[in-house]
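Onboarding guide, step 5: your first structure request.
Type a short instruction followed by the sequence, for example:

Predict the 3D structure of this protein.
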Amino acid sequence: MNGYKKRILDSVLERRFKTAGAILLEGIKWCGKTTTCEQLAKSIIYMDEPEKRDHNLLMARIRPSEVLDGKSPRLIDEWQITPILWDAIRYKVDHSDKRGLFLLTGSAVPANEDEMKHSGTGRFAWVKMHTMSLYESGESSGEVSLGALFDGMDCTGAHPAVSQLPEIAKAICRGGWPVACELAGEESLDPAFDYLDAVVKRDISKVDGVSRNEDRARRLMRSYARLQGTQATAAVINADLASNETSSFDNDTVYSYLNALKRIFAVEDMPAWCPNLRSKTPVRTSDTRYFADPSIATAALRIGPKGLMEDLKTFGYLFETMAVRDLRVYADAHLGDVRHYHDASGLECDAAVSLRDGRYGLVEIKLGGAPLIEHGAETLKKLASRLDTTKMAKPSFLMVLTAVGDCAYTRPDDGIIVCPIGALKP
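The system replies with structure tokens like these:
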């Protein structure tokens, strides 16, 4: 595999080859989609290759069979620049009795979705790729398996690979960009700043052809960084801009910029978890705000590892962003998902990790230390007591996921798991 380091998502793609005619792999730019798919593909066409781009675009319109012709699975990289191919792929899948015919990668939602006449239901499988988790970058020992926790694993005594705040601060600021994870020292922080520059100077406008101001985009992303882990509305974002920046936007402009960031997968907000409750307490359904990688936030704030160590409140918010990213990567390996809980009484839970078979675990994310761990444990117990287990299963586990800690353990009095993030894997 020419030095390729296997990603957790590889096993998901291999499974989906057996069930879907075509796989659409989406995710933030530079997270490793093309490199991953190159290992699985038998033939490849790079739609955005400079010397062939015009030819590829023309052929996609007048003779799509030329673009699609090749050994299966055929990788069509950056397919979104020619969304007209969607229907041609659907047609080819329809008229074949084989699976795993095509791999499509995309770093943005197509601007011209009206060229896609069919939904792709039953032909396409949608898969999301994230930046690298700590387990993939070699900074988690993997002694605690998320999947095994659902089966009742006793994780007591598992040791993390990294467990000191300075190490975690560096991992947050560096992010999970594959190229950054191969670098050492200060240069490992550069890719996050390069990504931010690419977004505000070009990508946020290129995605839908709407010209957006670079300075406004940069200020909005700074505000979004300050609001990680909250359910901030456009009005709240505007209020933050008014307090911390030179000027605010109108709400429509905020939503326009945010929608563009979502279309390029820079923003990956977390939907709400709505369980069955014993009481009639209303559950809030607003998404929680997160960047796809914590380093986008640190780059937007222009803060490095030393700055995080001097501002533990911001450290805590951005550690949560990194922990959510890792939980998403690990849950994806089990075809699960991650959501948050927030009700009208003010009770919040950072993450509910749910599997297809109905099992779920509840997770509170904390930097560490006895007071914060105790606060997280009390939150988990309070939420668990409100669940109507006559209508849904009991949680498979309750866990406080920490940045620091010498080892993982299960609290003897209430069975809550305390696990450093540097010990976790799928």
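Each response can be followed by summary notes, for example: The chain has a mean pLDDT of 94.
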